[in-house]
Amino acid sequence: KQEVTQIPAALSVPEGENLVLNCSFTDSAIYNLQWFRQDPGKGLTSLLLIQSSQREQTSGRLNASLDKSSGRSTLYIAASQPGDSATYLCAVCFDSGGGADGLTFGKGTHLIIQP
Amino acid sequence: DAGVIQSPRHEVTEMGQEVTLRCKPISGHNSLFWYRQTMMRGLELLIYFNNNVPIDDSGMPEDRFSAKMPNASFSTLKIQPSEPRDSAVYFCASSFTGGIMEAFFGQGTRLTVV
Asked: What is the average pLDDT value for chain A, to the nearest integer?
């Protein structure tokens, strides 16, 4: 069964710190990997998408990397701010051989940035 | 584009009643997905359509759940009869399979079955 795991489940850091969120997946046959942000009671906001052929993507203070061979991705947040507090979800679009599947999600990392 | 639009945003119903959730995907997208989010299980894929055709419904929990996509701009997820354990947030998402397949999500429908 294809699975996505996120570590840590929760993280609390002071404002201004750089931090890394981790995501691992069980199958290297993927189409892409997406990182989402979810605020309490809200929907999912797409942050970054890394295609299977790419190694990393950057958007502002966010940088996501992908290592397919080891089944890992990281989301790096630079100079964290209280507004970054949210749950961050890693999702993988696996290639089942018959085409792209829907997204398989990790359980998320609940991030709190202390002012 | 207004993004993926789901209705209703909130639904409270009594056990045994029929519930219908609605989704309008982003115009031009040809894949549509229904997900369910609970505290215990996180986000789970229920079913997805490609070009209005159901491709994989292995995530649909029981026969009480059914989904349709009569055209490219509308989909429904129906639960009949509803049970308290169906209480969750249901998300619809869409993407375009000819591109990078980035998925865009609606705001969700929070379903409470009492």
From this structure: 94
Binning pLDDT at 50, 70 and 90, where does residue A98 land?
low
Say whether residue A71 is in contact with chain B using an 8 A CB cutoff: no
Selected for mutation to probe chain B from A5, A36, A44, A105 (highest B CB count within 10 Å) is A44
Note the pLDDT tens digit of each residue in B55-81: 989 999 889 999 999 999 999 999 999
Q: Decide if pLDDT at A12 tops 70.
A: yes
Altogether, the residues listed in chain A come to a count of 115
Question: What length is written for chain B?
Answer: 114
Chain B hits for A104, Cβ within 8 Å: 45
Who among A32, A89, A91 is closest to B100 (CB)? A32
B106: contact with A, CB 8 A cutoff: yes
B103 close to A (CB below 8 A): yes
B1-24 pLDDT per residue, tens: 689 999 999 999 999 999 999 999
